[in-house]
């Protein structure tokens, strides 16, 4: 690609999972930068019942940690950000959603334009939102904690 070519082959998907229903609040944008995050959060705020507080569990990606994200948070006191520790993204249900989207819809998709994966993403979310169901952990909290402890022990023995 020449230096003056424009690259129009990506899309960014911002998504929030409604834990109690399994529904997805989402928005696609051409880029995934700190400027897009407050716009997405505004859409979330307009979607969620204004009488409810909004608790968001976020990964450690920097888009929501910059000054614009902090200012947005100060202006929206019903929103609360909670960050998962580094290396524990599997605890974040949104990561699980993105994993399933990739495995079930996008993994083997061959496309010739950016519109095709966008349509596939939209179809996947629309199908899920037709009959959403909350995510249910198949292991107990104790089993999850034991697995984490085993992993920590294993990491402690690696040289």
Query: How many strands?
Result: 4
Radius of gyration: 18 Å
Low-confidence stretches: 1-7
Fraction of helical residues: 40-55%
Coarse morphology: globular
Let me know the largest β-sheet.
Answer: 2 strands, antiparallel
What is the overall pLDDT average? 78
Oligomer: single chain
Number of helices: 5
The percentage of residues in β strands lies in: 5-15%
Strand order across the largest sheet: 1-2
Terminal Cα span: 43 Å
The chain-level structural class is: alpha+beta
Element string (H = helix, E = strand): EEHEHEHHH
Task: Draw up the topology in text.
Layout (H helix, E strand, L loop, with lengths): L11 E6 L6 E6 L6 H12 L6 E5 L8 H9 L3 E5 L9 H14 L8 H16 L10 H17 L2
Parallel strand pairs: 3-4
Antiparallel strand pairs: 1-2
Structure write-up:
The structure is a single chain. Helix content is 43%, strand content 14%. The protein is of the alpha+beta class and 159 residues long. The N and C termini lie far apart (43 Å). It has 5 helices and 4 strands, in the order ββαβαβααα. Residues 1-7 have low confidence and may be disordered. It has helices at residues 36-47, 67-75, 93-106, 115-130, 141-157, and strands at 12-17, 24-29, 54-58, 79-83.
Features:
single chain; 159 residues; alpha+beta; 5 helices; 4 strands; globular; disordered N terminus
Concise overview:
This protein has helices spanning 36-47, 67-75, 93-106, 115-130, 141-157; strands spanning 12-17, 24-29, 54-58, 79-83.
């Amino acid at each position: 690609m020449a230096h003056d070519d424009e690259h129009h082959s990506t899309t960014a998907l911002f998504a929030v999972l409604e834990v109690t229903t399994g529904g997805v609040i989402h928005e696609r944008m051409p880029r995934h930068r700190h400027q897009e995050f407050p716009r997405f959060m505004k859409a979330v705020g307009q979607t969620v019942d204004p009488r409810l507080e909004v608790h968001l569990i976020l990964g450690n990606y920097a888009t929501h940690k910059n000054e614009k994200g902090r200012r947005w948070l100060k202006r929206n006191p019903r929103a609360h950000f909670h960050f998962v520790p580094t290396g524990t993204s599997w605890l974040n249900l949104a990561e699980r959603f993105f994993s399933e989207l990739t495995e079930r819809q996008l993994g083997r998709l061959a496309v010739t334009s950016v519109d095709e994966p966008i349509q596939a993403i939209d179809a996947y979310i629309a199908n899920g939102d037709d009959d959403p169901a909350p995510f249910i952990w198949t292991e107990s909290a104790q089993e999850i904690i034991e697995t984490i402890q085993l992993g920590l022990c294993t990491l402690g023995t690696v040289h």
